[in-house]
Amino acid sequence: MTAQIAIDALTEEQAGQELKRLAAELAAHNIAYHTNDAPKVSDAEYDAFKRRNIAIETKFPHLKLPESPTDAVGAQPSGKFRNITHARPMLSLDNAFTEEDVYDFMARVRRQLDISDDTPLRWTAEPKIDGLSLSIRYENGELAYAATRGDGTIGEDVTANAKMIKDIPHKLPAGVPAIVEVRGEVYMAKSDFLALNEAAAKANRDLYANPRNAAAGSLRQLNANVTRERNLSFFAYAWGELSEQVADAQSAVVNLFATWGFKVNPLMISTDNPQEVIEHFNKIGLERSSLPYDIDGVVYKVDDLATQKRLGFVSRSPRWAIAHKFPAEQAITTLLGIDIQVGRTGALTPVARLEPVNVGGVVVSNTTLHNADEIARLGLKIGDRVVVQRAGDVVPQLVSVASSPENAVPFSFPTVCPCKLQTAVVTEITATGEESAVRRCSGDFICPSQRKEHLKFFVSRDAFDIEGLGDKQIEAFFNDDALPINTPEDIFTLATRNTESLQKLENREGYGKTSVKKLFEAIEAKRTIPLQRVIYALGIRHVGQSTSKALARHYGDWEQFRANAQAVADGDQKAIAELTELNDIGTAVVESLAKFFAGAETAAMADNLVKHLNVEASRPVETISSSITGLTVVFTGSLVRLTRDSAKEMAERYGAKVGSSVSAKTDILVAGPGAGSKLKKATDLGVKVIDEEEWFKLVGEE
Q1: Helix, strand or coil, per DSSP, at residue 98
Q2: CA–CA dist 65, 394 (Å, integer)
Q3: Max alpha carbon distance in the chain (Å)?
């Protein structure tokens, strides 16, 4: 990650650029978290972005953007459901990360109220549930509709789903106001989350990362019966529109909710002692791992409603409330061992095997150690007591050694691959002449571990994408005695071999005549396949999708590609020069192609495969002369109207070259939300930067 410039050292120009970068970054993360229920960074990382943005705006207030993330709440609705405009906005809370932040907040409240430190002021403190915010509207005691937060103003209509949650009453008791909007958090209990993922694993479905994602995904199902099956829960703690006031204090209203049939959190307290608020935070923090639901902090609110009204709101949050966030959660456990996993490219990845420990509501039994340098940096020994950290939704990480007993055993990184062949492990030299941190098995395709990972890659979505043949099936077939799949060719002979086998696939557990028929039909459907997919599926190192496309378009058909690849492998300088002139082709790609087709095993694997295929030739792109013809364009960040592939195809159609990285040769960078290092580099180099809408105007497709 590029080192950030300290805020005090930012020039005005740098500050403006940084605010634009942070706005794009935070907008993309808001969409990932609130709309897609699939966050890409931890809560701690997201909060760090927000704090930096606020700090820069504080120092340079005149540079604050109209679309500043400081004023944003959530993200726009996804479009899957009918939109509902909230009668009163669903705002978010400002965050505190230290006791000092909390006391500063309380002092600020007193200043705004113009009251002294010894004037009594009552607070509530309650756990901040890590779930999905929901507003439930009742009219004349009947549930009218339920809506998600959305962007704070407009949410999604999830009424049918909300009615499936046992904690949400469909009818309120007599005597309640004519209009009541009860707000709170939909969540999934840890036990229900574990059961859901266990069932998903047995059914070979994708697993949810954490209870919050599971709750959000379960509530936002188009089929409400799925929501009912997920056993969601709901805590009520706030309200929107009320046609008449029902109490004078925050705590009193929440207690009233309980009498109306809602579940409220038993850990909520009310006190006029600021120190007791902090003590409650610490107490809940100690109990956090044993709670049946996930929390990520404690929320403090001024209890008196008249005082809340006096304090009012800023653009996106109330002045009378704040969320005190927990730090990244840590736990201490024992390092039982270090296992070595071998990837498709031969990279050896050490994985820490841990005595299972609960970290932030997730039972952790292993975590990656990345490489040998990481083990050395941490000074790990088998038997050490180690600190494991889980910050928000990120994969748990081993951060340090807590203690090392006398009988702890040093770990020696293997010099031979743990596969059956015990091939040598090598350390590559980087372009700068330094040793790479990654160590690799030198066996390539003859290494069983690499070959199995190659097969998983071969059937993956962007390669051959064979329905019914995923990672688990490859694992089973790879170790099968009767019907093995050890090479890509074996996939396309499976049906014939099954006919001849005494142990037919349809007689095995997990299969039947129908499922076997569908599998063979899916395989048959992929016998005819575009050239670029074949090249990509071979899994040649450094040959990604864009490079595969460039090779396919240049050589046209398999025969031309294969002949020229062999010439490159044989050291033909003319063939090498022709290859290096192509866009997206560098020295690493040339060397990888040469190595692949110079190897007897890998070359034979490719040749044997295509005997079973009808490889479709690649058509040359018909270009249109335009203002970007001959220019080099790079795309970065999240695009809204286009997928990354369609954006590249559009650029090529108008005669532009599409680069994968920013350099002095780049003419235009098209930056969407979430643009990061490429945007910064383009700015530093003076490359023209435009957004997606400007791109459409530039090519004349407004």
Answers
A1: coil
A2: 30
A3: 90
| CB proximity list for 273: less than 8 A, separation 6 or greater | none
Question: The tokens 């209509």 sit on which residue?
Answer: 157
What band does 73 get if pLDDT is binned at 50, 70 and 90?
low
pLDDT at 44 (0 to 100): 61
Give the separation between CA 610 and CA 85, rounded to whole angstroms. Answer: 57
If one looks up domain 329-410 in CATH, what number appears? 2.40.50.140
pLDDT for res 360: 61
* Structure token pair of residue 323: 């969320």
Strand partners, 125: 269, 300
CATH superfamily of 632-699: BRCT domain (3.40.50.10190)
pLDDT in tens, 268-294: 999 999 999 999 999 998 888 788 998
> What angle do helix axes 600-610 and 587-598 make, rounded to 10 degrees?
80
CA angle, 183 then 188 then 193, to 5°: 170
Taking the model in full, what pTM does it have?
0.52
50 as an active site residue: the answer is: no
- Torsion sign, CA atoms 73, 324, 390, 199: negative
Query: CA 700 → CA 399, 431, 585, 625, distances in Å?
Result: 52, 41, 30, 12
Q: How far apart are CA 654 and CA 649, in angstroms?
A: 9
Cβ-based neighbour number of residue 1 at 10 Å: 5
In the chain, CATH 1.10.150.20 sits at 444-526, 530-616
Element (H, E) at 25: helix 12-30
Taking the alpha carbons at both ends of the chain, their separation in whole angstroms is 36
Q: 3-class secondary structure for 490-553? A: HHHCHHHHHHHCCCCHHHCCCCCHHHHHHHHHHHHHCCEEEHHHHHHHCCCCCCCHHHHHHHHH
Please state the φ and ψ torsions of residue 271, each to the nearest 5 degrees. -155, 155
Domain 444-526 fold is DNA polymerase; domain 1 (1.10.150)
**Which residues touch 589 (CB under 8 Å, ≥6 apart)?**
542, 543, 547, 579
- The ranges of the chain annotated as CATH 1.10.287.610 are 7-72
CATH number belonging to domain 95-325: 3.30.470.30
Six-digit token pair at 480?
């099968």
The model's pLDDT over 619-659, given as tens digits with 9 standing for 90+, comes to 776 778 888 888 999 988 877 777 777 788 888 888 888 87
Residue among 20, 128, 381, 549 flagged as catalytic: 128
User: How much is the pLDDT for 1?
Assistant: 36
Segments of the chain assigned to CATH 2.40.50.140: 329-410
The segment(s) of the chain belonging to CATH 3.40.50.10190 are 632-699
Contact 15, 362 (CB under 8 A): no
Angle of helix 448-458 versus helix 471-478 axis, rounded to 10 = 140
CATH class of 530-616: mainly alpha
Structure-block tokens of residue 653? 């159609």
Structure tokens, 473: 């099936």
Q: Regarding beta strands 132-139 and 179-187, do their DSSP bridges make them parallel or antiparallel, or are they unpaired?
A: antiparallel
What integer is the mean pLDDT of 231-245? Answer: 95
CA distance 138 to 240: 11
- Gap between the Cα atoms of 454 and 345, Å rounded: 8
Q: Closest Cα to residue 469, out of 480, 457, 481? A: 457
Look up residue 421 and give its amino acid.
L
